[in-house]
Each structure stands twice: as structure tokens, then as C-alpha cells.
Amino acid sequence: MDWLTSVKWDRDGLVPVIAQEAGSGDVLMFAWMNREALAQTAARGQAVYWSRSRQRLWHKGEESGHLQQVHEIRLDCDNDVVLLKVTQLGHSPGIACHTGRHSCFFQRFEGGQWLAVEPVLKDPEAIYR
Amino acid sequence: MDWLTSVKWDRDGLVPVIAQEAGSGDVLMFAWMNREALAQTAARGQAVYWSRSRQRLWHKGEESGHLQQVHEIRLDCDNDVVLLKVTQLGHSPGIACHTGRHSCFFQRFEGGQWLAVEPVLKDPEAIYR
User: Fold this and answer.
1) Rounded CA gap, A55 and A65, in Å?
2) With a cut of 0.85, is the ipTM above it?
3) Predicted confidence band at B128 (pLDDT cuts at 50, 70, 90)?
């Protein structure tokens, strides 16, 4: 389909994806999609990524229940980065990170080092049973 | 330095970077940094990226005057993605995109196609003289 073809896939056939929480504006996570993942995301209205470590489609929340409802899909000026506006489901406040935190970006550069500055909302052992 | 070493640089020695406007929460752009770019960003308090097309350091705004003042640098759970909280300088409202728009993510997926849904705030020809 045209809209999938106009995306500039990289040498691995992937595109970087930023997931932003629609309500808060918080950047929740960063991942990758291939053509099939983007097509499924648009069709389902839920985020489906490409897991580079597992080399397979990754329906976000398939294990944890922390699905991402997709409200909007955006593409940047160079057609090579995707931005999703999502609601992070399954827990309140939403948990996007596998560490049990709201956002994956919980380490802040401070005093010459990276400090974890966001709380763990749920024990990862309780998330991935 | 330790904090630079703990970043997981990819096979090209780069890390993906998301720039988010501190005030609005808007995701402005996506770019890449190498080790030197991240070191300079932290030292100057202004965003310095690595331009993959030009293969050189790119002090954002060096031509356009649209500098990014960096308030916070964050790192994700896998240590392989950086998030900057910035103020987009040089124009009000801020222009991060080379097309003269506020954000690079101005194309929205709608009705099976990508539609440009954000206004051009300044003619790019007037930005890059």
C-alpha cells in the first residue's frame, strides 16, 4: 500500500518509533517497526513493534497486559521516523517499561552520571509471570 | 568518561536521540549522536547531533539560529536511546523542522494516507539564507 511504501525503511527494513502518552505528553518508549508491524498497528489500533532481539513481531503488552491503544500515527519530515500517540493500558498510571516504570526514560544525567529518578510502579516479577 | 561509556552505541557508534519541548511536551525531532556529540551537548547545554548525511557534528541551529537549549538529558532502560528536554530558540513558537514547522512530526496518518496537518511558521528559504 502507498502509505507503507512512502515510509523510508532503513537497511534492515525498519523504522524507529517513538511512543508518546496522549494524555500527559510523556515519552514512554522507543522501539522499531518493520512494514508488517506498522500495517498491524494501523489495522488493530494497538502498537505492534518489531523485536530486534527476538527477531519477531512484538504485540506490545502480549505478556504483561500493558497494551498500547494507538490514537494517532505520525511520520516525520524525512519519512523515516514514526511517532505514536498512545494510551498505555493495563495499569494506572501506565507502565510502558519492562522495569515496571511509567516510562523507559527514567535515567537522568546529573552530576556526571545517570541517576534513576522515576519510581518502580510494579515489580517486574509480578508483571511477567 | 564513565557516563559516556555506559551508553550502548550501535554498530555505527551512534545512539538515537529524541528532542522533546520542555514547556509543551511536544516531540520536536529525532536525530542521532555519536560520543563526541553527546559530550558536547552536555558541556554546552545546547543540542549537538551527528549528521549522518553530512558525516559531521551538527550543532543544531548553527545555520538557522534555531538552537536547542538543553534542560535535561535522559537515557532509557537499555542505555541505547537518549531523550533531551529542550527549549527551541530563535523563533516563537519554536521551529525545529527544516520545513519551517514547529515539529518534524507534522504528517498524520488519516484515511489511508499521510496528511501534513501542521502549519509552516516560516518560509524555509528565509530560514536558510
Assistant:
1) 21
2) yes
3) confident
Whole-number Å distance between alpha carbons of A127 and B104: 35
Residue written as grid cell 557516563: B3
| pTM for this predicted structure | 0.97
What pLDDT sits at residue A128? Answer: 80
- Tens digit of each residue's pLDDT (9 = 90 or more) over A1-39: 699 999 999 999 999 999 999 999 999 999 999 999 999
Chain A interface includes B26 (CB < 8 A): yes
Burial class from Cβ neighbours inside 10 Å (0-12, 13-18, 19+) for residue B55 reads exposed
Exposed / middle / buried, residue A85 (Cβ in 10 Å: 0-12, 13-18, 19+) = buried
What are the beta bridge partners of residue A88?
A68
Q: Which residues of B touch A78 (CB under 8 A)?
A: 104
User: Is B48 within 8 Å of B42 (Cβ atoms)?
Assistant: no
- Compare CB distances from B6 to A25, A105, A114 and report the shortest one's residue: A114
